[in-house]
Write a structure and sequence with these properties.
Layout (H helix, E strand, L loop, with lengths): L4 E2 L11 E2 L6 H4 L6 E6 L16 E2 L3 E9 L2 E5 L6 E5 L3 E9 L6 H5 L1 H5 L35 E8 L5 E17 L9 E8 L1 E4 L11 H8 L2
Parallel strand pairs: 1-2
Antiparallel strand pairs: 3-4, 3-9, 5-8, 6-7, 8-11, 9-10, 10-11, 10-12
Amino acid sequence: MPNNVTTDLSNWKYQDNYVERIMDNAAYTAAHPDDTIVLVGPPRVRLLDQSDPKKGLKAVGMMQAFQASQQKPTVPVQAIGTGRSFFVSSKSSIQWSIGRLFVKGKNLIRALNENAIAAGVDVTTFDEPIVPSGEPASSDYFVNLDSELLLIPFGLAVLFRDKSHNHLGGFYLELCVMQSWALGLNAGQNMVMENVSGQCDRLMPFSISPQAKIESSDSIDQKIGF
C-alpha cells in the first residue's frame, strides 16, 4: 500500500507513490453526478435569504446533462523593439446548457422559471403566450422563447459532494437567460429530452455547508489505515 505521495522531485517514486495525494479512498472522496445537484433560484446570489439560503432554491430535477463553461477573451500584444509578447484580457463570458427528460410534471422551461412563478408573475397576461390558450398560470408546461416571461433572469446553483457527504465545492450562475430550446424525436429512441442553453452574467463561488449524515471520509481513512 502506498505510504507517501509525490509532491516534488525529491520524493518521486512512481511505482510506490501517488502524485499529490493518496488515492486509495478515491471511490468515496471523488465528485460524481449522483452527488451533484443543480438548483434554480433568484438572479443574484445576494438575494438569497442569508440566514437560510436553502429556502430560495429549488431542484431543477430530471436532468441527464448539465454543462457550464467560461471563456475569457485574451489577445497577445507585441511592441516594437522586443520579441516578447504580453497579454490583454477582457471580461469572461459564461455559457450553460441543460438536457432534461421530458416527463409528466413541470417541463424544463417551467422548472427554470420557478423563481418568477413563486413571486406571483401572471404568465397569462403576456402578449406572447407561454402556456396553451385557456390553461391557467399554474400550468406545468411552458414553451415559446418569445414570451415576456423569458426576459426575467434567474440563477442556477450547482453543489458537489462526495460519497461521504463532504462538501467539495459549488458555484452560482448569476443573471441567467435562455437563448435556445430544442427537442428532437427519432423512431426507436427510448426517451424524449428537452435541451436548453443560455448565458449568464457571472459565475460566483457558492457554498451551503451540509450537515454530515454519515461518518466523514477522514474518520473512515483512519479506521481502515489509509
